[in-house]
Design brief:
The protein is α+β, with helices and mostly antiparallel strands and 415 residues long. It has 13 helices and 18 strands. Helix content is 25%, strand content 18%. An 8-stranded mixed beta sheet has the order 5-4-3-2-6-7-12-8, sandwiched between helices. Strands 1-9-11-10 form a 4-stranded antiparallel beta sheet. It is globular.
């Protein structure tokens, strides 16, 4: 029997829903979040944050000041390794040819994306490259500072010399690049937030967006790309797949994973001020600090060389290996490779199924996770015969009274 005290509190339903969405992204329960808050109160001897009677005016006239705050607080300043960018982008050369590329960056000259597109500008045949700098980045303007005003700027490249720009020490010869009259650096009037009007204008002028957006703002970023109907190849965490803004794109075959990252465990360089207090963190032979992040994937809507082939299935259905959920008329399939070849009903499969998803073979019905009851239409819930269960926390599948991980419900298509 648990010895932990139980406290009942009243929470506004809308506040609870929005908070749970944040906690789901972070990967903790509301109970864990509340316990963290109470421990902070005990440790500080007061509220762990300042409470004011009225809202302060934002520091920027830009309506995105709150997003900038989230960017800083979440410590999202991760710099992707060059080899990860190169390996993925080379798979999309035909799609990139003749295109205007936009890279929203913390700082272009610290970015592996800017470096890749400058080095491969001529071999791919790009039309142009525009890269923005976010003024609040700790590295903004350090590598190739501009005179005067803030560190927010845009770097526009329309021509690259035939001779290599890579110096013997590995750095780029930026002076030669921006001595060319076709290229220029220009201060931005705002702070370079991707949601600012001037960055949206640059987005409208581009063909393809390639970057590593802040993980905490990934849904906002991909929403913006969707609203502007832009092609993209961006790096994110696969947990974002379950977000209500993103899962329908996978379901409807409008977004899919890239080709080069499968394990999902990737190293990112971080500023010197970033704490290295987690497993996998360290300092490399060049003195650069890095962390390792699990669950990282490329997200894209580019038509690529990926071949959609039906899964080769060998398992057959039986009651013991494929239990039914207590709250859905569907069976649990713990591994994609174990999908039974002879079952035509609804099946719950892991999120990793999306790697093998062939729309001609299966239909994605819904995502059964903690927000299923609010994110899925009543018609679909009726179709899967959902019934309330005291343990499902909003819609997660239940087996033997226990919640399972988020599952994608699929159904075989008629041949």
């Amino acid at each position: 029997m648990s010895t932990k005290p139980t406290t009942t509190i009243r929470i506004d339903p809308d506040v609870k829903k929005r908070a749970n969405e944040v906690f789901d992204d972070i990967g903790i329960s509301m109970s864990a979040a509340i316990n963290t808050f109470l421990k902070a109160v005990d440790r500080e001897g007061s509220m762990p944050f300042e409470i004011k009677g009225c809202r302060p005016q934002p520091a920027f006239s830009n309506a995105n000041a709150r997003l900038n705050n989230a960017f800083i607080v979440k410590k999202d300043e991760f710099y992707t390794q060059y080899e990860d960018v190169e390996k993925e982008m080379l798979n999309h050369q035909e799609q990139l040819k003749g295109k205007a590329i936009l890279c929203n960056c913390d700082d272009p000259f610290e970015s592996a994306f800017f470096r890749f597109f400058v080095i491969h500008f001529n071999s791919i045949g790009l039309a142009s490259l525009t890269s923005t700098c976010y003024a609040e980045s700790s590295l903004a303007g350090l590598e190739y500072p501009l005179e005067g005003r803030s560190n927010a700027y845009k770097a526009v490249v329309k021509k690259v010399p035939d001779d290599s720009l890579v110096r013997p020490d590995g750095s780029l010869d930026l002076e030669s690049l921006f001595d060319m009259p076709e290229n220029h650096l220009e201060h931005l009037s705002g702070n370079g937030d991707f949601r600012s009007d001037e960055c949206k204008t640059l987005l409208q002028e581009s063909d393809i967006v390639a970057t590593n957006p802040p993980f905490s703002l990934f849904r906002d970023f991909i929403d913006m790309l969707k609203d502007h109907e832009k092609d993209f190849i961006i790096l994110g965490n696969m947990n974002a797949t379950t977000a209500k803004e993103i899962f329908p794109l996978f379901r409807d075959n409008k977004v899919w994973y890239g080709e080069s990252i499968r394990s999902g465990d990737r190293k990112f360089f971080v500023p010197d001020s970033y704490p290295l207090n987690a497993t996998g963190c360290g300092i490399d032979e060049n003195g650069k600090r890095y962390i390792r992040v699990k669950g990282v994937r490329w997200f894209t809507n580019l038509n690529t060389s990926r071949s959609l082939q039906p899964l080769k299935l060998e398992c057959t259905y039986n009651n013991n290996d494929y239990p039914k959920y207590e709250n859905y008329n569907a069976i649990e399939v713990g591994r994609t490779q174990n999908i039974p070849v002879d079952y035509d009903g609804i099946m719950g499969v892991p999120i990793t199924f999306l790697d093998k998803y062939d729309p001609s073979q299966f239909e994605i019905v819904m995502l059964a996770n903690g927000n299923a009851r609010t994110n899925v239409s009543p018609k679909t819930l009726t179709d899967v015969k959902y019934r309330l269960h005291p343990n499902d926390k909003g819609g997660v599948g239940i087996i033997n009274g226990k919640r399972v991980y988020a599952r994608i419900f699929i159904r075989r298509k008629s041949s």
